[in-house]
Design brief:
The protein is mainly α and 209 residues long. It has helices at residues 10-35, 40-67, 71-76, 83-88, 94-118, 126-129, 133-140, 142-147, 149-176, 186-204.
Length: 209
């Protein structure tokens, strides 16, 4: 017997649209990072990460098809979400580019987890949504920053600048799309959680938040 699914309401459409758009944006960002990577090995690894991001999108496509949701339209509501952030944080080196991705993907993934959990959507998705970029930074950047105080100081300043912009984007996204948080009073708690997790990730690569 074929399984039937409940149609998607407006709240859920906003959540799924945001996750889908973030997956597409993550794919594009990782592919560009790979294209400018200093070694062929890093290029290959970033191509794999980009492929994982697109698999997340494809999984959401299947989920949406079963429920009659136009995923392209839902994701399109967030078109240009990262444009201002990117315009204000242009990296001058490849490691700055890489740290920017680490900060942006990390903070936004935490936001997506919070939003999905509050809407009781996609439980146990930690592994599926982990694109591997954080692991790559811990393996490849952390040893450099641990042994080079000057590099660590420079990238810490850069990461703080990026994090400030991303945090502003998190706040504005929750304000512009209040259905994401469900309870307007929950937005501050969500921002605080994203900030806390960001600080933990900075420590993992020996940078100061």
């Amino acid at each position: 017997m074929e399984r039937t699914y409940e149609p998607v309401d407006a709240d859920t459409a906003e959540v799924v649209g945001l996750i889908a758009y973030a997956a597409l944006a993550g794919m594009t960002r990782l592919a560009k990072d790979g294209d400018q990577a200093p070694t062929i090995g890093a290029h290959i690894e970033h191509a794999r990460m980009a492929a994982r991001a697109f698999r997340v999108f494809e999984q959401l496509e299947i989920w949406s098809e079963h429920r009659g949701l136009d995923l392209a339209a839902a994701a399109g509501e967030y078109s240009g979400l990262f444009d201002d952030l990117d315009a204000r944080t242009r990296p001058s080196t490849w490691w700055e580019r890489s740290v920017k991705t680490y900060v942006t993907l990390g903070m936004f993934t935490d936001l997506l987890h919070e939003v999905a959990e509050r809407h009781d959507l996609f439980p146990d998705q930690d592994e599926a949504w982990d694109l591997g970029q954080g692991e790559w930074e811990r393996a490849n950047l952390a040893p450099r920053t641990a042994s080079d105080e000057q590099l660590a100081a420079r990238l810490s300043l850069w990461a703080r600048r990026v994090a400030g912009e991303v945090l502003g984007l998190v706040r504005s996204t929750l304000f512009t799309h209040p259905l994401l948080a469900q309870d307007p009073d929950a937005a501050d708690a969500m921002v605080a959680w994203v900030t806390k997790r960001h600080k933990e990730r900075m420590a993992e690569i020996h940078l100061k938040a």
